[in-house]
Design goal:
Blueprint lengths: L1 H22 L6 E12 L2 E6 L12 E3 L2 E3 L2 E5 L4 H5 L2 E2 L5 E2 L3 E6 L25 E4 L2
Antiparallel strand pairs: 1-2, 1-8, 2-5, 3-4, 6-7, 8-9
Length: about 140
């Protein structure tokens, strides 16, 4: 019985690990990607990577408000970063600009924050998180 339980546990862990590898590739260093905002609240944003070849760095089959997305990640726009994107919802609920380039990284940038920052977050955020820096 112990051998059977151990075999089932090992098999389950193996398949779980394989699924994770197939779904997402870990970002090492930094990458420049084109993103589109799916939703935002204060500085908390869900982004979708637009390049098919780079979607591997985000979560796959992420469901948000009844729609599935591939290549999504969450981020927190701090200080002046939010102003640099000109990211705001229009009357349709979509965000403008519709897409823009950012540098994504697991390493936090250094911010010189003088203003208070809203840290409210959306209720259904992707687990994958990147720090971003908008590229002009």
């Amino acid at each position: 019985m112990r051998k059977l339980c151990l075999a089932l546990l090992t098999t389950t862990l193996f398949f779980t690990a394989c699924q994770k590898v197939n779904q997402q590739q870990e970002l090492t260093g930094e990458a420049i990607v084109t993103v589109k905002a799916i939703d935002a609240l204060c500085g908390s944003v869900i982004f979708e990577i637009q390049e098919d070849s780079l979607k591997k760095y985000g979560e796959q089959n992420f469901t948000y408000k009844g729609k599935k997305y591939n290549g999504v990640f969450s981020s927190q726009l701090l200080c002046s970063e939010f102003a640099n994107t000109n990211l705001y919802p229009n009357n349709d609920g979509n965000f403008e600009p519709s897409s823009f380039k950012v540098l994504i990284s697991k390493n936090p940038p250094t911010y010189n924050c003088e203003n208070a920052t809203c840290l409210a977050i959306l209720t259904n955020m992707p687990e994958t998180f990147y720090f971003i820096h908008p590229i002009r």
